[in-house]
Design a protein that fits this description.
eight-stranded antiparallel beta barrel; elongated; mainly beta; Porin
């Protein structure tokens, strides 16, 4: 289990355009498969959807590790896909710093027009692509 706080920058294009910076969070709940690999469920801001992730120490004697997350959510006519990866450094037992780069794709399908004489509707789809970068300070409970 772990929690983290930090700073994030977000840039988006498509139907939703703009950029912002702000607060980042990280929550993890998982299982250590070995002393090098942990698999976990995660919820992060800016990703906003529950994701399946991993933490992998390349070398057992190193304090550096790789992270990755994959998440997908859909409902009604919307879908959200989130992919991210990063690198972390274990400062000491239970404390680490992580830097992650992510991609989020948001797709929205909606009815844009309805013809009252024929009953025909016209559906449109919009898509937004979001790039995120986040740095977090994490506490791990194991």
């Amino acid at each position: 289990m772990g929690i983290g706080v930090g700073y994030a920058a977000v840039a988006s294009g498509g139907a939703i355009e703009g950029s912002a910076t702000g607060f980042a969070t990280s929550g993890k709940l998982g299982y250590g498969m070995s002393d090098q690999l942990t698999i976990y469920l995660s919820s992060t801001v800016p990703s906003i959807i529950p994701s399946l992730g991993f933490m992998y120490f390349i070398d057992r004697n190193s304090d550096y590790y790789l992270t990755g997350l994959l998440g997908y959510a859909s409902g009604d006519q919307d879908s959200l896909l989130s992919i991210s990866g990063g690198i972390g450094y274990q400062l000491r037992d239970h404390l680490s710093l992580e830097l992650g780069l992510g991609y989020i794709r948001y797709t929205d399908t909606y009815t844009s027009a309805w013809n009252p004489w024929t009953g025909q509707t016209f559906n449109e789809t919009s898509e937004s692509n979001v790039i995120t970068i986040a740095a977090t300070f994490n506490v791990h409970f194991y």
